[in-house]
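Dock adenosine-5'-diphosphate; give full complex structure.
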Amino acid sequence: MGRLVAVSNRVGSLRGVTRAGGLAVALTEALQARRGLWFGWSGNVVESAAEHVEQQTINGVTRATVDLTTREHDDYYNGFANACLWPLFHYRLDLASFDRRFYDRYQRVNRRFAQALIPLLRDDDLIWVHDYHLLPFGEMLREAGCQQKLGFFLHIPFPVREIFTTLPMHECLVRALMAYDLVGFQTEADRQCFEDYVLREAGGTRDGDRLSAYGRTVVARAFPIGIDTEQFAAMAGSEEARRDAKRLKAAIFNRVQIIGVDRLDYTKGMPERFNAYEKLLENYPDTHGQVSFLQIAPTSRGEVAEYIHLRQELETMAGHINGRFAQLDWTPLRYINRAITRRQLAGLYRMSRIGLVTPLRDGMNLVAKEYVAAQDPNDPGVLVLSRFAGAARQMPAALIVNPYDAAGVADTLQRARHMDLGERRERHQELMQGLRENDVGQWANTFLGMLERVELDALAA
Ligand code: ADP
């Protein structure tokens, strides 16, 4: 078994995993099993870049990181990755900024990272690159002479051709993706969008799950990501989490709690969700004094204008809804703008009768899975899930909604409120079975197993 080299923009701490998500846990486990290396950005922004690679080995896994300069951070990270690729791949063309300077720096950072990694590689390494920050990373490695097997996984959606081709450098990016041996997507729909581009735009060909174009061949497959199901369920069922949940439930007078948990991001559909909640209160007066909506949304990318604007919009909406419906002893909506620990999160999910997950577009959405895993199997809550989350395809036993249809979401919330225990249990069992069969450990093993088997077609071409 070759050593695993994981490459991602952010590198996990390899130490305390209590705050880390399932991906960090799964990658750390896979890296420990193969005494691997995790390479990426240190998280530090410095005035001028040193070529130095910081290395640290913990429990047999090496963490190798490089710094970004202020300019690289502005143009590569905040610029091309988060102000161009992120909105575009989530179908927000209106927010995508096509700045050549951003793209040039994105290429340069990818090249600099690749050159920093090359001296650390061994011949039998298996290299696994993650996400949209690093689309051209594999091509840069190949240019620098890398012959190892190269896999790539895209954690966000891959857009339809009409959207993707609005990006002036669409061809360069797909050509770069073709330098990998295996390219993984969250859903079959994403994989199809990529295939559609390769066949129709790039004039390529297909043979089973192999796609060829530009003289290169890749295997393209969907590998829907999961969570650390058993660990998360155990954490939610722990004595401490149960104690937390009981205390919090008493604090809201045992009202039916609806919960939303998201990074503060325009893809998550939070203004639409607040509208839907307002519709629920408007259309179903029996909810007054009986339900409580808790939205937890820590700020992310707080220096980008759209995110600042969104935060202000949500604060205004929350104030409006509470001003309109609150009573002396009832606050209909509580909006918390900060991160909490995973254990607290697990407890909050468990005490909430409804998990409301309504992104406008989302690669997978792990919150939906965490909410289900955290439920008490004897008295589980109901997941209300947007059809535009990648998770919706794997979780048909959730109540699936269109997040743009406020009245429809309100009707579904009312249905969830009144769902009987038998139906709740049945739906929960079905969802849990899926989460157990497809957890994050299985996801990593399936991807790596396939990468190990894949032939080195890219080199042969
Ligand atoms: P994205 O990757 O776009 O942020 P996901 O739903 O796939 O969306 O993953 C979000 C992760 O961040 C989940 O593991 C979730 O538990 C975590 N998270 C989101 N909000 C908070 C919060 N307020 N406090 C702690 N963790 C959070």
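Observed: The mean pLDDT is 94.
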